[in-house]
Design a protein that fits this description.
With 217 residues, the chain is an alpha/beta fold. The protein has one domain: P-loop containing nucleotide triphosphate hydrolases (Rossmann fold). 45% of the residues lie in helices and 17% in strands. It has eight helices and eight strands; from the N terminus they run E-H-E-H-H-H-E-H-E-H-E-E-E-H-E-H. A five-stranded parallel beta sheet has the order 2-3-1-4-8, with helices on both faces. The chain has a three-stranded antiparallel beta sheet with strand order 6-5-7, with no helix packed on it. Strand 5 (123-126) and strand 6 (132-134) form a beta hairpin. The model has no long low-confidence stretch (mean pLDDT 90). One of its GO terms (cellular component) is cytoplasm. Catalyzes the reversible transfer of the terminal phosphate group between ATP and AMP. Plays an important role in cellular energy homeostasis and in adenine nucleotide metabolism. Pathway: Purine metabolism; AMP biosynthesis via salvage pathway; AMP from ADP: step 1/1.
């Protein structure tokens, strides 16, 4: 059984790299962001709370994140292990995680702030079906229109320069100490996240002696 944590700033590719690992290694990808998006889409009470925070350009509170992750991990559907994306969010949560789970490693996707701004401000979302696009790496066939349903592509409510600057400040103040704590335990492998997704995936697998990445045919 393998258990990994993946850490990185918004736009560093945590979800993409997690999904690539999970698919090949039969891991369960536990994405805090995906859990919250499900609640927003299904109009739950939690979803309404998250929607208000996102509209204000703020991050979801640490206590709420911790509660959601505890509930998810208690489902114990991860027979071959998991990779968790979006947690821990502070030093206390990191210490809890170390005490509760025998993790195999921490993947730290390192991305400079200027590249984060370039990637995040290029993101678009289909206003009809919710499909994600990025005008740098995943452009639609018709400008401004979703390839799947033809809906209008819009910027996310929280993808503004001011909101992103606030999130970057909060990320560094909270996550940098988490990375340092894991690093002292010799769990951390830092990977340059500026490269394309296949190169990043190969670097992760090399660092952790995992089966080589074979691109889909």
């Amino acid at each position: 059984m393998r258990k990994y944590v993946i850490l990185g700033v918004q736009g560093s590719g945590k979800g993409t790299q997690s999904a690539m690992l999970a698919g090949d290694l039969d891991l369960v990808h536990i994405s805090v962001g995906d859990i919250f998006r499900w609640h927003v889409k299904n109009h739950t009470k939690l979803g309404a709370q998250v929607r208000r925070l996102v509209a204000a350009g703020e991050l979801v509170g640490d206590d709420l994140v911790e509660s959601v992750v505890r509930d998810r991990l208690q489902q114990h559907d991860w027979n071959y292990g998991f990779i968790i994306d979006g947690f821990p969010r502070n030093r206390r949560q990191a210490e809890f995680f170390l005490e509760s789970y025998d993790i195999d490693g921490v993947i730290h996707l390192d991305l400079p702030d200027e590249e984060v701004r370039r990637r995040v401000l290029a993101r678009r979302l289909c206003s009809r079906c919710g499909m994600d696009y990025n005008l740098i790496a995943h452009r639609p066939a018709e400008e401004g229109r979703c390839d799947v349903c033809g809906g209008e592509l819009v910027s996310r409510a929280d993808d503004t320069p001011d909101a992103l600057a606030r999130r970057l400040r909060e990320h560094h103040s909270k996550i940098d100490p988490v990375v340092e704590l894991f690093r002292r335990k010799e769990y951390v492998m830092t990977v340059d996240a500026r490269a394309d997704k296949a190169t990043v995936q190969r670097a992760i697998r090399t660092r952790f002696n995992l089966p080589p990445y074979l691109p889909p045919q």
